[in-house]
């Protein structure tokens, strides 16, 4: 049972890493930021080449093609993020957490044509809304995803009333979810805590404020707090 879309991966070296996929809202803002930069580049090229006649028109079309299709590729393979993504703390990685390379970046960006269908990136938007990792078509085909560059802060301290004996067997994923809830509780509003606690009611067998206290107590038991 997961209470958020955070992804936990284990590297070949046995190191656990956490990735948090970026949602459609922040990715749209990053896209608009990059779009404005591309427009400025094309406009500057158009002004500079406006006096070259027909040859200038041909050169402008080449600039438009290069900027549209290779602007994101160049930044993603050199820095892992376009200026727009950088401004919002996002980066592009493979599904296994490794940095994206030329092949992956080319694939995910060439398939933006599919994401655009039938208009205004409608297919890509719907695909992201239906994806647990907020992937568009290009991400699925390229095996990539857009994540937050810096992992969310994990709290090492949380308060609890008393340790609660765990009467049911919890699998590893569920244990991580319970502990994550307790650690993040100080950064969550009471309403959000209640919402998440109610989702995990199959574990606590209770709902309401008592569920929050119960979950924190179980977490304290799992991490050995006294």
Automatic annotation (TrEMBL):
Q: Where is the RDD domain?
A: 22-142
User: Does the record's keyword annotation contain Transmembrane helix?
Assistant: yes
Q: Which chain regions cross the lipid bilayer?
A: 30-49, 56-75
Instruction: Alphabetically list the UniProt keywords.
Output: Membrane, Transmembrane, Transmembrane helix
Places the protein is found: Membrane
Q: Which GO terms describe its cellular component?
A: membrane
Which Pfam family, any one of them, does this sequence belong to? RDD
Regarding the membrane, this protein is recorded as: Multi-pass membrane protein
Q: Which PANTHER family match?
A: SLR0254 PROTEIN (PTHR38480)
Q: What is this protein called?
A: RDD domain-containing protein
What organism is recorded for this protein?
Answer: Aliiglaciecola lipolytica E3
């Amino acid at each position: 049972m997961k209470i958020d879309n955070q992804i936990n991966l284990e590297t070949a070296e046995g190191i656990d890493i956490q990735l948090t996929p970026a949602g459609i809202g922040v990715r749209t803002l990053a896209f608009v930021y990059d779009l404005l930069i591309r427009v400025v580049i094309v406009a500057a090229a158009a002004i500079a080449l406006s006096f070259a006649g027909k040859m200038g028109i041909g050169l402008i079309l080449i600039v438009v093609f290069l900027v549209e299709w290779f602007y994101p590729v160049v930044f993603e393979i050199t820095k892992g993020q376009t200026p727009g993504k950088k401004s919002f703390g996002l980066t592009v990685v493979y599904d296994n957490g490794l940095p994206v390379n030329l092949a992956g970046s080319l694939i995910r960006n060439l398939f933006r044509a599919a994401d655009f269908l039938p208009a205004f990136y409608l297919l890509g938007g719907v695909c992201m809304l239906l994806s647990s990792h907020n992937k568009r078509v290009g991400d699925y085909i390229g095996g990539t995803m857009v994540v937050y560059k810096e992992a969310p802060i994990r709290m090492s301290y949380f308060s609890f009333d008393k340790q609660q004996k765990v009467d049911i067997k919890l699998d590893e994923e569920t244990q991580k979810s319970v502990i994550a809830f307790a650690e993040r509780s100080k950064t969550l509003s009471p309403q959000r805590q209640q919402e998440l606690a109610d989702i995990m009611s199959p574990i606590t067998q209770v709902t309401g404020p008592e569920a929050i206290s119960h979950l924190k107590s179980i977490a304290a038991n799992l991490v050995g707090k006294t």
